[in-house]
Amino acid sequence: MTPLIRCLTILFLLSFVSACSKTEPTPATPAPPPTPATAKTVTSESVVKVNAQPVEISAGGSADATVQLTIQAGYHVNANPPTFPYLRPTTLAVPPADGIKVGFITYPKPLNKTFPFAEKPLAIYEGETEVKVNLKSDKTAQLGQRSIPATLSIQACDDQVCYAPGKLELSIPINIK
Predict the structure, then answer these.
(1) Residue 166 near residue 41, CB atoms below 8 Å
(2) I need a surface site. Which of 22, 24, 69, 74 has the fewest CB within 10 A?
């Protein structure tokens, strides 16, 4: 073999070996598919909003406070009183505070609505509704503005299921004159 052929043979073998030894680039590991956004967990507290309107009471007098419930579309809460004793009623609790006590609480007239899971229509509240609280002031109550705490107990349901009962804390703004 002539030196030129030997050189060309070596070059050919080196290029062949070099070409065969090249590794294919490994494809990038694909990113895992994005996880779907977790659906917001529904709770009784997440579908009901509550707000109390300010009320003026004269010292020694009484006045009605209005507590507004806003129930998200597609949900309802049980009325007070509920249709069946095992259902949790919507209940407003207002403990005595700062010379103010509750005379009585008036719940709204319920809607009677039929659901696939109940043998007869249920008494419920949905949309916007109001609970009235008759508040009485002591004659010696300090004049001026204040807020008294209250708790609304609810159990929200949709057409398929009822969610765990919940409590919403609120304040009733009062001005004693």
Answers:
(1) no
(2) 24
Cβ-contact 58, 137 below 8 angstroms: yes
| Weakly modelled stretches of the chain, pLDDT under 50 | 4, 7-8, 11, 13-14, 16-17, 20-31, 33-38
For 68-131, give the DSSP string: EEEE-TT-EEE-SS-SSTTSPPPEEE---BTTEEEEEEEPPPPEEE--TT-SSPEEEE-SEEEE
What are the residues facing 63 on neighbouring strands? 135
Nearest to 133 by CA among 110, 175, 101: 101
Torsion of CA 137, 93, 55, 44, to 10 degrees: 170
CA distance 41 to 156: 13
Q: How much is the pTM?
A: 0.75
CA-to-CA distance for 161 and 102, rounded, in angstroms? 34
Using one digit for the tens of pLDDT, what is the confidence trace for 27-54? 444 445 444 444 578 999 999 999 999 9
Category of 6 on φ-ψ map: left (φ > 0), alpha (ψ -120 to 50) or beta:
alpha
